[in-house]
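ok so for the tutorial part 2 we go from a plain amino acid sequence to predicted structure tokens. step 1 is just haveing the sequence, like this:
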Amino acid sequence: MRRLRLCAMLTAISSLSLFAQKATWFDNVKVSGFAIAQYQWSNPKDNEANSFNLRMARVALDGKVAGDFYWKTQIQITGNTSTLASSPRLVDLFVEWQKYKAFNLRLGEFQVPFTFESPIHPVDVGFMDNGQAVLKQTGYSDRSGMHSSNGRDIGIMAQGDLLKNANGRNLLHYAVSVVNGQGINLKDVDQRKNVVASFWVMPIEGMRIGVSGWEGSYARKGNWTDEQSGESRSGVRSLPQHRYAISGEYVSNGFTFRSEYVHSTGKAFAKTMTDTNDASASDCNLSAIGSKADGFYALGIVPVVKSKVNIKARYDLYRNNGEWNSAKTFYEAGADYYLAKNLRLSAEYALVNDRSLSKHNYSLVNTELSIKF
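step 2 — the prediction. this is what the tokens look like for a chain of 373 residues:
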């Protein structure tokens, strides 16, 4: 009897040991995230507003498995959506083979490689949000009518670093992706994939100069009225999208200087999709904003007290129809104060010139408390 008990104990210990060996991948799992609380005041004529807001919060898990495979999953909660029920959403879920630095292969839902600013961590962008050109032409509050997708899509991507110099620093980076073109958490509609690619060179330490391109379409299945004949139509309506960006950045010792020009050609749907079950998901009528848009921003962040106090300024222009009568420009200035390494208080003032309003100029004040973990 004692022998049977001893054998059972040894078997159990052996099984636990085997499970522990198989589960060692869990030791590589890292939990991270951030949260941004916001207060914003603005005074456009007849539309004044001031409010506290949970701008954004994310929690992510990532790690390595089987040596060469990196994986990540990330969930976002945001307080500025029109449909609170759809606020929590999956923004990342991918696996990437990383055996060679010159060639990594990623599969899943991820940030598409378009513009320098889009992939930057929201806390590290340095201002109240991305530049308007990035927001409107990279899948955040996209001009095409796509639902808010945080610059992400579903597909496959190859990326890598090439051409090492004598100091071992890579001089060239590339990223080429093939994605659905429908944003996060949705299947393809028109069966036409989008190709999004980015290339940049790094001539000196901290500097990169690059170009990005986006060729594809955004589509919906639903109903619309033909603009020429006035007839009612139904089915899949696909809107070609052609975009490019020219980018430059220099980051060193707490100093950040970045500038980008982003251009888009492609028509847009009249309504932004907010829910796959409401009318916006099947409304295929076109917006009156036309088929062209462009934007430009230039920013600088300068440390006054290293790792403690920054001052910053940004010029941010966007034209939603490519013409000056639609121009919206932010002239921004502000400062950051680090209460701790990953706890930051930020304040900005912006003079806004919006030519679509009867009274073009108004003021905006934005303050944020952000924490990373």
